[in-house]
């Protein structure tokens, strides 16, 4: 079975642009969470989606948005990119909403804003 | 708010030896879960071990074990018989029971296993 897949792997954008990152969860997993990992730091929680609804949100500005599709894949959108948005964006999936057994992560999208 | 602190930015160990990574956390919650994740250069976060706060018994997974001290809010990871493939960043993480997928991570410890 395929793990959590994220695309693209790497991305370079200019300040002020918009970006869309994509995540496909493990087959059968209905929950997707997004994390931002700035260089030298641990990941920070951005969103969780379960059954196509936002179920949790971290302390990120409204420039960050996401959605989940009927097939449970997800998109993370960031508008008006800032240099500080440069980071590794990780997607994690789990079968249900409150998975206390840990999440399965993808390998991330490395976003560089210039 | 919960916080997770990893006080060792970098550590190294000789192959086949034992190493312990430290983690402390701060919370007023009583029901929660603690995790250790490994992030090799491939960038994928891999779950190493998980501990339920209401269980006193320390979790063990093959060469990996934890020392969970709930009163002291300490959660250290012991790696026995270290292997070259254990070289990675290790992150300690906290999750409140019933939270909406919100894992709170520490800043990580970079572990190098030397031949």
The succession of helices and strands of chain B, N to C, reads: EEEEEEEEEEEE
In terms of quaternary structure, the protein is heterodimer
The structural class of chain B is: mainly beta
Q: Please, what is the average pLDDT of chain A?
A: 93
Largest interface: A-B, 32 and 27 residues
Overall geometry of chain B comes to globular
Which sheet architecture does the biggest sheet of chain A show?
A: 7 strands, mixed
Distance between the termini of chain A: 36 Å
Judged by helices, strands and strand pairing, the structural class of chain A is mainly beta
Total DSSP E strands of chain A: 11
Radius of gyration of chain B: 14 Å
Report the sheet-strand fraction of chain A.
over 45%
Mean pLDDT of chain B: 94
Weakly predicted, low-confidence segments of chain A:
none
How much of the residues of chain B is beta strand, in percent?
A: over 45%
- Rg calc of chain A: 13 Å
What does the overall shape of chain A look like?
globular
How many distinct helices of chain A?
A: 0
Please report the number of helical segments of chain B: 0
Q: Helicity level of chain B, as a percent range?
A: under 10%
List the helices and strands and how they pair.
The complex is a heterodimer of chains A (114) and B (115).
Chain A: E1 5-7, E2 10-13, E3 19-24, E4 31-37, E5 44-50, E6 53-57, E7 64-68, E8 74-78, E9 87-94, E10 104-105, E11 109-113
Parallel strand pairs in A: 2-11
Antiparallel strand pairs in A: 1-3, 3-8, 4-5, 4-9, 5-6, 7-8, 9-10, 9-11
Chain B: E1 3-5, E2 10-14, E3 19-21, E4 24-26, E5 32-39, E6 46-52, E7 60-61, E8 64-69, E9 74-79, E10 88-96, E11 104-105, E12 109-114
3D structure, described in words:
The complex is a heterodimer of chains A (114) and B (115). In chain A, 0% of the residues lie in helices and 50% in strands. Chain A has no helices and eleven strands. Chain A has strands at residues 5-7, 10-13, 19-24, 31-37, 44-50, 53-57, 64-68, 74-78, 87-94, 104-105, 109-113. Chain A is globular, with a radius of gyration of 13 Å. Chain B contains no helices and twelve strands. Chain B has strands at 3-5, 10-14, 19-21, 24-26, 32-39, 46-52, 60-61, 64-69, 74-79, 88-96, 104-105, 109-114. In chain B, strands 2, 5, 6, 10, 11 and 12 form a six-stranded mixed β-sheet that branches. Chain B has a four-stranded antiparallel β-sheet with strand order 3-9-8-7, with no helix packed on it. The radius of gyration of chain B is 14 Å and the shape is globular. Chain A binds chain B through residues 3, 31, 33, 35, 40-45, 48, 50, 55-56, 58, 88, 90, 92, 94, 97-108, 110, and chain B through 4, 33, 35, 37, 42-47, 50, 52, 91, 93, 95, 97-108.
């Amino acid at each position: 079975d395929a793990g959590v897949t994220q695309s693209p792997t790497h991305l370079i954008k200019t300040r002020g642009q918009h970006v869309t990152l994509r995540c496909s969860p493990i087959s059968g997993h209905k929950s997707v969470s997004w994390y931002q990992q700035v260089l030298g730091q641990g990941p920070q929680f951005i969103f969780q989606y379960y059954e196509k609804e936002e179920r949790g949100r971290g302390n990120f500005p409204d420039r960050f948005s996401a959605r989940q599709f009927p097939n449970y894949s997800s998109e993370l959108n960031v508008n008006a990119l800032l240099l500080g948005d440069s980071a590794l964006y990780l997607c994690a999936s789990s079968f249900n909403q409150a998975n206390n057994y840990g999440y399965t992560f993808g390998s991330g999208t490395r976003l560089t804003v210039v | 708010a919960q916080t997770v602190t990893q006080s060792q930015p970098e550590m190294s160990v000789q192959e086949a030896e034992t190493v312990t990574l430290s983690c402390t956390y701060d919370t007023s919650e009583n029901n929660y879960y603690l995790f250790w994740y490994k992030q090799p250069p491939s960038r994928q976060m891999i779950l190493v071990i998980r501990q339920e706060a209401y269980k006193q018994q320390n979790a063990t997974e093959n060469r990996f074990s934890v020392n969970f001290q709930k009163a002291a809010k300490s959660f250290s990871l012991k790696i026995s018989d270290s292997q070259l493939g254990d070289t990675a960043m290790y992150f300690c993480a906290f999750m409140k029971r019933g939270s909406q997928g919100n894992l709170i991570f520490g800043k990580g410890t970079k572990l190098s296993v030397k031949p």
